[in-house]
Amino acid sequence: MDCLCCWSVSKPLYLLLFFYFFSCTAKAAFNLSTISFDEGYSPLFGDGNLVRSPDGRSARLLLDRFTGAGFISSRMYKYGFFSANIKLPGYYTAGLCVAFYTSNGDVFKKTHDELDIEFLGNTKGEPWRFQTNLYGNGSTSHGREERYRLWFDPSKEFHRYSILWTAKNIIFYIDDVPIREVIRNEEMGSEFPSKPMSLYATIWDASNWATSGGKYKVNYKYAPFVSEFKDLALEGCPSDPIEEFPSFDCYESDIARLENADYATITRRQRSAMRRFRQRYMYYSYCYDALRYPVPLPECVIIPSEKERFRDTGRLKFGGSHQGGKRRSRRRGRGRVQASNLEYDPDM
């Protein structure tokens, strides 16, 4: 079957063909080494709401009316590849936020860096949405978020979500298909994330903004809400944030291996898949939000056809924190990550 198939077909067949296009355009699955929870992670908050599997290879994060839950990488990394197979809660998920992200906000409180994948719940029968975002050197006034729909139901089965971060670029992946790339350029300056970061995974109550700008709240009648993480992968250069530079051995071996890995380069076929995804499923991009940024930020590559499509975005403000809830349990590990800046919900 030819991947470049005709698009004028019925919707069910269209979606099947679109999924096939992704699967045949991407390379074979990345060659990843997975680790157990104890090899790379520590509980962050939630006490009994973080449940590890008997073999230690996976973990569940639960949200109930008392608290959410989260875990954190045991070490910080100066560049890396962070990946997990994730399954999200189903049925009624309005107000939920499940986040898979990197940050150093506990160490650099005013100059923190951050790379986000945030899943936003919805009302019964409506699909999950998600967004990617990045901040560098405390640039919270410059939210660089994009928002998307998915071509599958993330509550039905596991899918792999990954973040690549190097000195040259940042790539977000779904099932080994790149969906976004940010290439470092000189004009970004210190706003390109460059300090050691930890990896976080959390589930929390984001009722005040996650669904239709806060219109629909978490309904604890359906609790507990369960998100599952397995096949955890951490590749990169472990680094002490107090040191100005990582050790010589770390820099020469780990960074070189990271930059030469199969997930560090987008092939022509993958780039075609990324373009198709963004054309079909991206519904907000900060690069085209003239209300927020009359002059696009320096890394933006303006595509005329996309600019026309996104001309009306940027209407509703929303904001939040990765670790919310009515009550936060006493937690081990690092403290709370700072809230995101005000952003806009283009759905409204």
From TrEMBL:
Compositionally skewed regions (Basic residues) per UniProt: 324-335
The record describes the protein's role as: Catalyzes xyloglucan endohydrolysis (XEH) and/or endotransglycosylation (XET). Cleaves and religates xyloglucan polymers, an essential constituent of the primary cell wall, and thereby participates in cell wall construction of growing tissues.
Q: Which GO terms describe its cellular component?
A: apoplast
Q: What class of enzyme is it?
A: transferase
Which compartments is it annotated to reside in? Answer: Secreted, Cell wall; Secreted, Extracellular space, Apoplast
Protein name, UniProt field = Xyloglucan endotransglucosylase/hydrolase
Q: Which UniProt keywords apply?
A: Apoplast, Cell wall, Cell wall biogenesis/degradation, Disulfide bond, Glycosidase, Hydrolase, Secreted, Transferase
Fill in the PTM field for this protein: Contains at least one intrachain disulfide bond essential for its enzymatic activity.
Per the UniProt record, the source organism is: Populus trichocarpa (Western balsam poplar)
- What Pfam families does this protein map onto? Glyco_hydro_16, XET_C
Primary localization? secreted
EC number, as in UniProt: 2.4.1.207
The UniProt record lists the GH16 domain at 28-229
Stretches the record annotates as Disordered: 314-348
- GO BP annotation list: cell wall biogenesis; cell wall organization; xyloglucan metabolic process
For this chain, one GO molecular function annotation is:
hydrolase activity, hydrolyzing O-glycosyl compounds
Family as reported in the entry's similarity comment: Belongs to the glycosyl hydrolase 16 family.
- The active site annotation covers 114 (nucleophile), 118 (proton donor)
What InterPro entries does its record include?
A: Beta-glucanase-like, Beta-glucanase/XTH, ConA-like_dom_sf, XET_C, XTH
